[in-house]
Amino acid sequence: MNTQDMHNDDALDEVLNRHAVAPASAALRARILSTAQTLPQKSPPVSELLRQLLRSIGGWGVAGPALAFSMLLGVSFDLATRTTATASTLDSTTIWELAMLSTDTTADQDSLQ
Prior knowledge:
6 helices
């Protein structure tokens, strides 16, 4: 039988029906059933998974400083790579004007014109 004949559903069914599969041995059947019975039936909630993860990495004694360091690293990297104007590059009157806390009324009049 060539591959073009296999495109026909009936021919494929015939080939598959001719192939005999030996039944599973009793030992294989028992191993499959014992594995299926030992698997958890329902996955644990996310809170339990996070608790197990925290326990496996050493508790808050390790996770707390690591989390704090990673947050500090992220903020530091953001501040180091920021290209927009920061408070240190603006003069104090501009900062006050941006916050609309300026007591200078001429600056407010200039912004309206």
